[in-house]
Design a protein that fits this description.
- This protein is an alpha/beta fold.
- The protein has helices at about 10-20, 45-55, 60, 75-85, 145-155, 175-180, 195-200, 225-230, 235-255, 255-265, 270-280, 285-295, 300-310, 320-325, 330-340, and strands spanning about 35-40, 65-70, 90, 105-115, 120, 140, 165-170, 185-190, 205-210, 220-225, 280-285.
């Protein structure tokens, strides 16, 4: 029997040509290796809604991504996990402008603007009827988050300072809401959907205010990557963005269908009205509108507004601003590819 020698280089070249021209024999499939990416998230529609829709539509798989999803209770916890190396990227709320401003993570994608997501609730029997009545009171919340910013800016409207005029009790948000319901503090600064637990378990509680009428307290929700992951895996981040654009286009074109999917498959523990409330508490933009907001500096301005809040409350001493921690080039690359 004659020994057959195969030149590997020639074989690979021929195989490549066969693939290019669709000439592979039936049944011969070359598996495309998927890129595994570990994603941390908050279970808030304005934060994880795009992620779930992308997953539902198969957008991550289409982009060759194998996603491992892990839920957290606050943006602080997610960033700590990512910095520690157990996550590659995350999607969160107000803390998006905190850790990256310390050079701990790079922002590369935005979801929407939280407008009425941050809320302050009070015990109906505590005699707190106006924002000014919070002076000298205990308020339980999670420092440096959407909720803290809402409280801070609300107090400023009546000449009060969150660092001096109220006693902030810092807890994880789930614990903060539990403490408030248990009567440990007469007020809580929180975010939707934690308000659903308050309404269900404390009927006498009332919402004192939310961030809806305070643009200075609006938050940009979005995505950040670990510094080293950002440096070495830009193609994977572009694919995350591509998957996100598929989800965003769907949400913008068919919002009610998207909410049906989110409610049925990912927020089944909530009433549909609560899911609608989360959606309506944020402002969404089209994929093309985001490209303009990135390019003209508006998005960076929104991020800087929250970074400055962290500076003002003493959470960050030497902050860097969005022009240093917000990488808009990846989104621009994806948009160019969509137009091609």
């Amino acid at each position: 029997m004659n020994k057959i020698n195969i030149n590997r280089r020639k074989f690979n070249a021929a195989l490549g040509s066969a693939v290019a021209f669709g000439g592979l024999a039936p049944g011969l499939v070359i598996a495309q290796p998927k890129t595994k990416i570990r994603i941390g998230y908050l279970h808030v529609l304005s934060v994880d809604g795009h992620m779930w829709i992308a997953k539902h539509l198969g957008a991550f798989e289409k982009e060759g991504l194998e996603v491992e999803l892990r839920e957290f209770n606050s943006g602080v916890e997610i960033f700590q996990a990512m910095i520690g190396g157990s996550l590659d990227v995350l999607t969160t709320g107000g803390v998006l402008s905190n850790f990256p401003a310390r050079n701990q993570g790079k922002v590369f994608l935005l979801n929407n603007i939280e407008q009425s997501v941050g809320q302050v609730w009070v015990n109906g029997g505590a005699g707190i009827n106006t924002i000014a009545d919070l002076k000298g009171k205990k308020v339980v919340t999670t420092r440096g988050t959407t909720a803290h910013l809402c409280l801070h800016e609300g107090l400023k409207t009546v000449g009060l300072d969150s660092a001096k005029d109220v006693e902030i009790i810092n807890q994880r948000m789930g614990d903060a809401v539990t403490s408030f319901i248990a009567g440990a503090a007469p007020a809580v600064a929180t975010w939707v959907p934690f308000n659903t637990a308050i309404k269900a378990k404390m009927p006498t509680a009332k919402k004192l205010f939310d961030a809806g009428k305070m643009p200075q307290a609006w938050i940009v929700d979005g995505w950040a990557a670990r510094n080293d992951f950002h440096d070495k895996n830009k193609d994977a981040l572009r694919r995350v963005i591509s998957a996100w654009t598929i989800a965003n286009d769907y949400i913008m074109a068919k919002p009610q269908e998207a909410l049906d999917i989110l409610h049925k498959s990912y927020y089944a523990n909530l009433k549909r009205d609560d899911v609608d409330e989360m959606y309506n508490a944020a402002k969404f933009y089209s994929t093309q509108e985001w490209a303009k907001l990135y390019a003209d500096g508006t998005a960076a301005k929104w991020l800087n507004q929250v970074t400055q809040f962290n500076v003002n409350i003493g959470a960050i001493e030497k902050a860097i601003y969005a022009d240093k921690y917000f990488d808009t080039s990846l989104y621009a690359d994806v948009m160019k590819k969509r137009k091609a």
